[in-house]
Design brief:
Bound molecules: nicotinamide-adenine-dinucleotide
Strand order of the largest sheet: 12-11-7-10-9-8-15
Number of domains: 2
Strand content: 15-25%
Largest sheet: 7 strands, mixed
Helix content: 25-40%
Number of strands: 15
CATH topology of the largest domain: Dihydrodipicolinate Reductase, domain 2
Order of helices and strands: EHEHEHEHEHEHEHHHEHEEEEEEHHHE
Length: 336
Amino acid sequence: MKIFNVAFLGAGRMGMTHLRNLIGVPGVRVRVVADPILAAAQAGAAAVNAERASSDIEATINASDVDVVMIATPTGTHAELIERAVRAGKPVWCEKPVAMTLAGTEHVVQTVEASKHPVMIGFMRRFDPGYAAAKHAIEAGEVGRIERFRALSCDTTPPPLAFIKTSGGIFVDMMVHDFDMARFLVGEIEEVSAWGAALIDPGFAEAGDVDTCVAMLRFANGAVGTIEGTRRATWGYDIRTEIAGSKAKLVVEAQNKTPLLMARNVGHEGDYFQSFPDRFETAYKGEMAYFIDCLQKGQMPSPGVRDALASLRVALAATQSLREGRPVKISEVSAQ
Ligand SMILES: NC(=O)c1ccc[n+]([C@@H]2O[C@H](COP(=O)([O-])OP(=O)(O)OC[C@H]3O[C@@H](n4cnc5c(N)ncnc54)[C@H](O)[C@@H]3O)[C@@H](O)[C@H]2O)c1
């Protein structure tokens, strides 16, 4: 088995989660962790026993002892870093989303496709055992004709308002995972109608965003769906999806983190997941293992930049619907 030498960019909240999950992924050696904050790069390098830490991002991407670039930097930097890495001739794995604008994402699609280098985007839910099994059941025809899609995404605690201001909004930053699941499991979305409110913190409204949202979806194959989201759930991280068809209903839901239910006093108690690092740990490990396996086999990984473009289009349509108070067709959303 070939060992791929990885340059890992961005050792923040998500970067540290991915670095820890990379330990034990076959065929990976994290050679260098780079972050403009050297102390962060050093902490990341120490977590995976990498050879070095660096604050020089350009030199890290171009280093001759680096075969693969992995990116977990703030969203606004993804497009430029992906393009720099493929221009340096290196395969890339990058966190979602590629960019917050259609024009920015389309530019990356063109650069990546012209380069022919493998680029995978981190829509990790596709690698969760529950969602993967749902996909398998749908493809095997066990659900029949899909009629309804229903998703609920509740983050446990809101991110800092400084992050919200640069996040692109709840649909682009957070609900994009649900739009990706909707596309993955049901098919392309044609139209979206969204509502939202700032109920948790007025800072969301000041940042031009909402913290609580609902969207209705109309799919090209005739199915209909809803998604609901919130930036805060005092009871814990709560992610659920339901797909109903002519033959069966699928429910993807991981209720208890610990497989223990204590029943007493005509009731019961169990525990929820804390947040995405524990709920989707298997998925994060799975997406990395799959990406490296694709590189081993010389195959193009999926989801790629075109999936990021398609889900961004839906997220932007939802954002437009929220602002204009009307249903928005995906075809209305075009690069400015
Ligand atoms: N897939 C998921 O479940 C999931 C969950 C949370 C966040 N994310 C995504 O992960 C990304 C990072 O989010 P975060 O919460 O970890 O952010 P963060 O701010 O905690 O960390 C980002 C790190 O990148 C560093 N950085 C900034 N510019 C850089 C550059 N040019 N090169 C290298 N490093 C740079 C920062 O110094 C910081 O240490 C975002 O795009 C976000 O959308 C994905």
